[in-house]
Design goal:
- This protein is of the alpha/beta class.
- It has 16 helices and 15 strands.
- Strand 9 and strand 10 form a beta hairpin.
- The longest helix has 25 residues.
- Bound molecules: beta-D-fucopyranose (FCB).
- Beta-D-fucopyranose (FCB) binds next to loops.
């Protein structure tokens, strides 16, 4: 049996997002977000559910923090809902929204859990969307003002500030495929949105540091490595093109200060308007990079291979292939000059069954996590600087367009009673966090 030891200060955590867990969608003065609007539109969500109540975390946060403590979490990644603190995105501040995040953060610190705050996990104020949303440059400035407001209030206690979660999903699922809020399908708008998200990231990083230059500022990117289906030169070239077109866009902008030439070739006239100074603003120094990893693409000259023969798939239809995480981390390490990395999301949805004893024996999730932890440990031995790991997710929650049909939690949530049950994977994770060790 091989034991993989992690460094003593490695941060074992779990992640969530405001819209997926908070509920209380219109309480205490909260304004409408694009996800409130989208989920209230018939036909948008697979099971016709909404995040109106979700895990009711807004009311149950104190118990949920107690649960995190029981799991031995050293860090917790969550997002703040812009419309709770600025109901219309700018202008009037809602003190009850700020007070809520004060309470949550104080509870985390009292439980010795390091808060990692994400400012934008997809719930744009609807009032800003009505004025054009991320296709308008004004939204970038509104975002920077929101960042400054939050840092002034919480920066004395929150040391890790993430601007965006997964800009590519925001731009392409929201404005190209239309499967996410605001449900737009327009390539020209989508690339302009992508660029504006980067500008907003740069402005927010400046705004955060203007309030307190000692804070850690980062961004979270989702990256799907493109593996060649074979060693043939044609497959190798196709895989590399897939990476350049789809994945390199944001890391190239952030860590190199330009968009990949392959994106210009692909997008042509739909390339966004870039103002002078934008790329330097985007490429400013960061204190950490968050990597969200779930799966990979297997690419041949004919296109993506799916399903990969013999491979295991999660309920999302994502291939289970942990070695791709080690390769991804090594590639990022060699392609870019990177700050320390946190794995900010990794996890899996499998059909969970509640046993007669009330327990959830989710061995497949446990194995998935174990194998990904091991690959991370190997990447660290290869020389990649990984400082922490956030499992997606702390608890089952509202999985965007899939509603409540997909469960990713270490903790099961019964949505009728709001009862929480730690799954076997959660118990096992508590041991990993306690011992700092994973055994094969
Ligand atoms: C990521 C999202 C997260 C969750 C997982 C499954 O793309 O950041 O909110 O939906 O996928």
């Amino acid at each position: 049996m091989t034991a993989h030891k992690f460094p003593p200060n490695f941060l074992w955590g779990a992640a969530t997002a405001s819209y997926q867990i908070e509920g209380a969608w219109n309480e205490d003065g909260k304004g409408e977000s694009i996800w409130d609007n989208f989920s209230h539109t018939p036909g948008r969500i697979e099971d016709n559910s909404t995040g109106d109540v979700a895990c009711d975390h807004y009311h149950r946060y104190a118990d949920d923090v107690t649960l995190m403590r029981r799991l031995g979490l050293k860090a917790y990644r969550f997002s703040t809902a812009w419309t709770r603190v600025l109901p219309r995105g700018s202008g009037r501040v809602e003190p009850r929204g700020l007070a809520y995040y004060d309470r949550l953060i104080d509870a985390l610190l009292a439980a010795d859990i390091e808060p990692f705050l994400t400012l934008y996990h997809w719930d744009l104020p609807q009032a800003l969307q009505d004025a054009g949303g991320w296709s308008e440059r004004d939204t970038c400035h509104a975002f920077a003002d929101y960042a400054a407001l939050m840092v002034k209030r919480l920066g004395d206690r929150v040391k890790y500030w993430t601007t965006f979660n997964e800009p590519s999903v925001v731009a392409f699922d929201g404005y190209l495929m239309g499967e996410h809020a605001p449900g737009i399908q327009d390539p020209q708008v989508a690339y302009q949105v992508a660029h504006h998200l980067m500008v907003a990231h740069g402005l927010a990083a400046q705004a955060i540091r203007a309030v307190d230059s000692s804070l850690n500022v980062g961004i979270v990117l989702n990256l799907w490595p493109a593996d060649p289906a074979s060693d043939s030169p044609a497959d190798l070239a196709a895989a590399e093109l897939t990476w350049q077109r789809g994945e390199a866009l944001f890391p190239d902008a952030i860590f190199k200060g330009y968009y990949p030439p392959a994106v210009y070739d692909l997008v042509g006239d739909n390339m966004p308007k870039i103002q002078s100074g934008d790329m330097a603003l985007i490429a400013q120094r960061l204190d950490y990079l968050g990597v969200n990893f779930y799966s990979r693409n297997s690419v041949s000259a004919e296109g993506n291979i799916s399903p990969v023969p013999g491979a295991e798939y999660t309920e999302m239809g994502w291939e289970v292939h942990a070695p791709a995480l080690r390769r991804l981390l090594n590639r990022l390490h060699s392609d870019y000059r990177l700050p320390p990395i946190y794995i900010t999301e990794n996890g899996a949805s499998f059909p969970d069954v509640v046993s007669p004893d009330g327990k959830v024996h989710d061995e497949r999730r446990l194995d998935y996590l174990k194998n990904h932890f091991i690959q991370t440990s190997l990447a660290m031995q290869d020389g990649v600087d990984v400082r922490g790991y956030f499992v997606w997710s702390l608890m089952d929650n509202f999985e965007w367009g899939h509603g409540f049909t997909k469960r990713f939690g270490l903790v099961r949530v019964d949505y009728k009673t709001q009862k929480r049950t730690v799954k076997d994977s959660g118990m096992w994770y508590a041991k990993v966090a306690r011992t700092n060790e994973v055994s094969e």
